């Protein structure tokens, strides 16, 4: 990895392929001086560490090892997190990234027959809130943009958007601006990365309405996608403007891991200055991992283990 004079980051991968990344297009990070006062969850869309992928592959060597039992038992998951969390062996970042990758690779199809709601005249007595909100949905998730926008607005009005608090704001903005027509154009044109970002939001908005069969189906698809992960993907590069540093990050079961770091005008820096900047950035990444773990534990107790999410 090299910082060019033309505002490009140059990468050379292990397969000898080379890439140039415009600095302005990369994710920019600005560490705050008083980090302890910044309790927000931090999400970076990074690639998976090779060790993490191998661990998943060892645990699930073939698709036959995936749990895909549609019968109801005491061990069946009640939430999407309970379906995926223990299998992925990571925190919230893994949860989001793994779903995102499964959607990008189309391993997870949210329009699969098993995700389609049955046509029925049955109504619960008394009528439940979940029935009122989902009775018009074709799928178990709000797959049309109108349905998804409506659910988002309801949840926002109720102050119930905790599930989306870790999603990058630009994804939320894109989601809210996307119409059904725009979504279909992206989907049919093969822009699966953009579609996946929107679909992740749809999943988080509708996950509390999923049944056992749908949860197990999604778990199966996500595990299959992750186990087939291509390790030669482009690394994720973040720019730390304050320290004029470019950092490539990966994700293992503990959180974000710094793989490589370079500095602008590195030849003009002393070894002491380089070591000091590396230590500061490494401490910042460590802080993010610890803070994310703390915030996730709070969310798990308040949201994913709360009674309202145990009800369908």
Question: What report would you give on this structure?
Answer:
The protein is α/β, with parallel strands linked by helices and 312 residues long. Helix content is 43%, strand content 12%. The protein is built from ten helices and eight strands. It has helices at residues 50-59, 80-88, 92-104, 129-134, 145-157, 169-177, 180-189, 192-206, 212-227, 271-304, and strands spanning 2-3, 8-12, 18-22, 27-29, 47-48, 236-240, 245-252, 255-263. The N and C termini lie far apart (49 Å). The model is unreliable at 31-39, 63-74 and 305-312 (pLDDT under 50).
Fraction of residues in helix: 40-55%
**What is the residue-averaged pLDDT?**
78
Record field, number of beta strands: 8
Number of domains: 2
* Helix/sheet category: alpha/beta
- Give helix and strand order, one letter per element, not per position: EEEEEHHHHHHHHHEEEH
Overall geometric form? elongated
Regions with little confidence, pLDDT below 50 for 5+ residues? 31-39, 63-74, 305-312
Largest sheet: 5 strands, mixed
Calculate the terminal CA-CA distance, rounded to whole Å: 49 Å
Count the helices. How many?
10
Strand content: 5-15%
